[in-house]
Design brief:
Shape of chain A: globular
Helix content of chain A: 25-40%
CATH architecture of the largest domain in chain A: Alpha-Beta Complex
Structural class of chain A: alpha+beta
Strand order of the largest sheet of chain A: 9-11-8-12-10-13-14
Distance between the termini of chain A: 41 Å
Number of helices of chain A: 9
Strand content of chain A: 15-25%
Largest interface: A-B, 89 and 90 residues
Number of strands of chain A: 14
Oligomer: homodimer
Radius of gyration of chain A: 21 Å
Chain lengths: 346, 346
């Protein structure tokens, strides 16, 4: 058949070659046999340079993330599933329902097609679980030594249901802060695989899409003020961002922060602060005190929020300080992360 | 002020550091002083992890491109303006009006902030010229040797005006093919800067946004069947893609293809075929024969289409061959590009 090579891609021992990024026949084959095959939907199959679709009425939300996690595979996930979760979560933290994603791949010459297929299949699975469709994409190839295996940029669009107003600037003093679960799992799981750091752990990354959890939250309490997923920079940085945006102080209680024994001991061993370690499947939500019990209840009833707890509240503070009541009864200022704890964690 | 470092970024001798991708204070500073400052709009200034906006009624279009062009600066453009043009053009080839863009940056540790600022300013200028707004973004940093300066992934959303149906599968035998201008300029301009190839030329890349040209085209002839910008793989590959999608053959006339003397001589010198060289500011349009004169007239009246010409037509051909009548009166099959002519051209 014209326009195809006669033999299929070699997914057992083939590698990414410069010609796969040329725009010609080899790229067309990669798109057909890898991406369209895995993501399987009528938008991609049309093979236009763009996708078109209808969206429900409402305010449209757009979010993007470029993923450079190293290593590409880690306990509990890989760059493929992470690239879906990261963007789905950025979309749904606005209360929006995510619908459509684009995916841009920057591949390094020589990367095994077998591993690339594993990543792409993982993306397809994660997209299916989150109920989103990968409708358009792009593939580029760079020479050996000018990349690092695979980088994936995803962008998503979603729509905010009428009546929601969820943003970082909405928090008022007195609002309660609910954390959906344990912190530090993603960062420690990825770090456990680094060449120079390998340590024994059965810990898995928490990488997951949160749109189903958000769905029950905004249905029960449409008055939620703000939600955010504490990814790079961790919970400590996220709370500082929100304090800054809303012009409030934040006080929270260390004893209320769920943390696994494995994360706690890895952090102690490596001298890291779990408050600054990345999460990829957790969120913090701010709501008025009269809604906090109800919101906590629906979160705890959901499998992705069973460990949820009210960790503190927003307070009047012109300095916008984030402060933590420590386990020993003292108080500590939790500043922005100023150095680099863990490079390339997402 | 809390949440900021006290001194500004050093745009004269500073470099990208790993900490600029950490999610903490340094990243926040980079976002504030570089991206928000250059792209200057109320969506970005809100500093949420997503942007929300209203779109006019109509079918929504989404397109994405990851840009890895090398070198990052070339005659007539740079990776920043190219990242806007590429995605704006993918959006508007569907007839859609582009509105909002996201931008994801993958920066290599050590890259000069001065050059990065030049790229970002160029993006801002190109976005302003095209009338699109960069509403959300992401920044990652990889270690020296794991990237190549700057990669930029852009994704755009737009809306198709009611009544248009423009797609690669719509072409029928008899439809005329109009090319908007000369071919090969972008590829040859970039190539002229490659370390191992440097040659003398005053040629500029044709990199430009085509949404204003498309606007006059679809207003005059809403019945346009298909439009596409012949980027990677060049005009030859684009015509093969459309022949394949629509199930037609294509015949065109070499004498009708505008090409500059500089591109022609560079191609002869280097043994390259201009039909496969990338363009970043040209389009081909297919329309019924009764509309072709009118469409050609409005294109020629526009500064981005003054060299437009009818280059050929779609024909009945079960083999979906693309054939060119040569300048010497013969005929040649123009196959898909099967090798790699010019890596990292966009």
């Amino acid at each position: 058949m014209k326009g195809k090579t006669k033999t299929g891609l070699n997914f057992s021992s083939g590698i990414v070659e410069m010609v796969h990024g040329s725009g010609g026949r080899a790229m067309s084959q990669l798109v057909d046999e890898l991406f369209i095959s895995a993501f399987d939907n009528p938008y991609l199959s049309q093979k236009n340079d763009q996708a078109s679709f209808d969206l429900p009425a409402g305010r449209v939300v757009m979010a993007t993330d470029s993923h450079v996690v190293s290593p590409l595979f880690f306990p509990g996930g890989d760059i493929g599933s992470l690239a879906i979760h990261g963007t789905v979560n950025d979309i749904c933290m606005s209360g929006a329902k995510p619908y459509f994603l684009s995916a841009g791949f920057i591949l390094e010459e020589g990367y095994p097609l077998k591993s690339l297929k594993r990543i792409v299949d993982s993306m397809a699975l994660a997209a299916g679980e989150a109920g989103v469709t990968i409708v358009t994409g792009d593939t580029k190839v760079v020479e050996r030594g000018n990349g690092d295996g695979v980088f994936i940029s995803t962008t998503g669009v979603g729509v905010i249901p009428t009546g929601l107003d969820i943003a970082g600037s909405n928090v008022k003093p007195g609002d309660k802060i609910i954390l959906s679960g344990s912190i530090g799992d993603h960062g420690v799981a990825v770090m456990s695989q680094r060449e120079n750091l390998t340590f024994e752990t059965t810990l898995l990354s928490d990488s997951q899409s949160l749109n189903d959890l958000v769905d029950v939250m905004v249905t029960a309490v449409p008055e939620i003020k703000c939600m955010r997923d504490p990814t790079r920079g961790g919970l400590g940085t996220t709370l500082n961002e929100i304090a800054q945006q809303s012009g409030v102080g934040i006080q929270f209680d260390e004893m209320q922060i769920p943390i696994s024994a494995q994360v706690a001991s890895a952090c102690e061993f490596l001298g890291l602060d779990p408050l600054y370690i990345a999460n990829e499947g957790k969120l913090v939500a701010f709501c008025a005190p009269e809604h906090s019990d109800q919101l906590l209840a629906v979160m705890r009833a959901h499998p992705k929020g069973w460990e949820a707890s009210i960790i503190g509240e927003a307070v009047v503070d012109d300095h916008r300080f984030v402060q933590m009541k420590t386990a020993f009864g003292g108080s500590r200022v939790v500043d922005w992360l100023s150095g680099e704890q863990l490079p390339r964690i997402c």
